[in-house]
Known about the structure:
The complex is a heterodimer. Chain A is of the alpha+beta class.
Amino acid sequence: MDDERIEDAISGVDQGAGIRVTSGERTTYANGNVADVDDLMALAGRAARSVAEGGELHEADEPEPDELPRRSTVAIDPRSVAVERKVELLRRADEVARGLDPRIHQVTASYGESVQEVLIANSDGLFRTDTRVRLNLAVHAIAKQGDVLESGFEAIRGTAGFEMLTDQAVEQAATDAARRAVLNVGAEPAPAGTYTVVLSSEAGGTLIHESVGHGLEADLNLKGLSVYAGRIGQKVASELITVIDDGTDPDKRGTAAMDDEGTATHRTVLIEKGILRTYLSDRKHAEKLGIARSGNARRESFRYLPICRMTNTLIAPGKSDPAEILRSVKEGVFVKKMGGGQVDVVSGNFAFEITECYRIRDGKLAEPLRGATLVGQGPKLMSEIDMVGTDLGYSTGTCGKDGQGAPVADAQPTIRIPSVVVGGKLK
Amino acid sequence: MSERLTNEATVDAALSALKASGATGEVFLREAQSGSVEIKEGAVEAVIARGERGIGIRVLDEQRLGFAYTSDLSNEGIRACVDISRRMSALTERDEDLALATRHIDDADLDIYQAGIVDRPLSERGAIALAVEEAARETDPRVKQFRKTTYSDSESTTIIATTTGVRASFRESYCGVMTSAVASENGDRQIGYHGEAARRFGELDPARVGRRAAQRAVEKLGAKPLATQKVPVVLDPWMAMDLLRAIGPLFSADNVLKGRSLFANKVGQRVANERVTIVDDARRPRGLRSAPFDGEGVATETRTLIDKGVLRGYLTSLKTARKLGAEPTGNARRSGYGSPARIGPSNLFVAAGTDDATAIIGGLDRALAVTSLLNLHTIDPVSGEFSLGATGNYLERGNRVHPAQGITIAGNLTHLLSSVVAVGTDLVFGPSGLGSPTLLISELSVGGA
Lengths: 427, 449
């Protein structure tokens, strides 16, 4: 829904398969749209032919189907919900966002559902299936004041059933998107410089995703490229920091029964009280690094090879009262919502967008700031965090790596960073 | 094996199904073969061969638009796709300006297809990637590793046909190679990315790609923080392209009409420094985003969007052109059969200027020459605000004082265009069709220590 009209309605089916053959250090992957068994056999032939000649052929083990526990409950299958109800939710979102403030100038609301049926079979006899029902309701509001335009965004996303999209949840998302647009259009540009920063639990988990998560992917560590390579058992963060990746967390956006090699998803403690415990692995890298398979081999679709990546990643709650963390800062910046981020895993330098933030003056929230970004170096920042709250807040996103998108969720408690660079403008 | 229709026969079948259902609409078919080769430590590590074929069907029923797509190209699959598209059209709202293409598309040879690019032997394709790494290592002994080096190629056919009588097709090929070189010295490690692409296999220059990635990594070694300040900023062609990509949405007529573009109501007005001319050229021979027609079956054009700083027009689709009372420009682009048409640029570039790139840098007391930008995807084209992580070389009187990291650069895209005070002669096109010469920005805010 855009400009108060239902503008696009799209439906489609994409069906295909990929055949992966590994021979020594080489992997060959043939994939394509597949309609029937003949197409599949043709793909298999194509994959086998491209592997170095002279290899020995042997019969694959008999498949041994088994069922993995489903991690998300889908009480209401979105396909069973009348499309009118979905349209109604969009109209409601549009109405709520536009009604919030006369400066709201444009609203786009979109609803998307996808049902991904996955079957993984391999020559070891593994034969597993998974169904991932994912929902996405997003609201993008624009506020205008004079010549200045500012955006506000909020989304409800999960691997879950339609029950996730209550009227109340949708109204809240629309309100948050519109409120953020209005706040930013009236805010002063963030002044560039180094500040004490409090990241609210409401801000979501972009920080942990960028500053640590990517650096713990096993493929980068096997190559010795990550700042965390070869450091299992060593202190890589403040003892206040425990980092967990949990692909089993019910209904979250990065949740599934298994990863895209058929390994069951796990709750993996990556960093425990500052000590690095393990990496996010697929089969190949788990074996080469001698670590347990963590169920983190993910792929966008049958068109791609699986790669090591995050599911739902979080910093575990700590012991400080979130209100006390704010009160402890005399002068600083309070981040209420983070947007997208990016990291250079080799140097550890990361940046993330801040979509809602305020000045802190004398331990209290003061004027809003717009256009801020936060940059730092992962291990350095993680060793400097000196307060961790008892709360926990989630956000969702689509993680990009090697040209593949993957749905993820991230979470963190309220934390304090004594000194970090905040990007913005100078007068 | 099941009956496999040719591409043309598939389109015929879909058109017939559309007509049989009494609907007016359009069929878009894309067939692509693509592949990639990844290398590791001097040997091929992964080979990917990918095939895709599918159709997208748009139905325009009583001025309401529906869209459905499928990879099931059996007769039943095609008929189901038409039915779903019709059902989708019942959900959307009437818009008097919606239209299907009706004009004949001219025959243009854009030289964008080289037959057999995906059928080259693995040895030849892998050799390109290996040559990139070799060149990078030879450039500087501090380059010891690579995050990833990938050669990729594709060959595809696109067909569009409407019930209003437009029918056209084109083939295109693409090959590209990219690497991320890693340089190490005294415990410091830095990455340098570079990638290039071409329509023809013989036009790739792996040595140049390797050298440039190596330079990018090595020049960041020993990087230090920089003090928070306002400073002139030099954007080399590759960095300028990164920011130019973010400017693209400002030209979209859809954004203009919906009040989402800072260029709304600015045609004929100055929106950039007079040194700046920006062109969108879908007809550029061998251009990486060149195509004879767009995703709605409208012939493409070569257009000057900003002429010596003055905004000349927008990028339009059939619908938005009608709303603006303008001609459609052929910019309703589709990334695949499953994607609806969205307005976007083709080969968007800043025209070459008259300043020598080296002289630009030499003439400044102090400047920051940007060497990489983080978080480009978060630039908000609506507000135009950007605040990005960066690395760069801090320069005084044209000489490098030290490389910098852990800094930010911030500004607004419209302000950036007004602040271009020198434009180099060194126009280069990148792997995604964007092009730019070196640009000097009079001043940006740098956040740091």
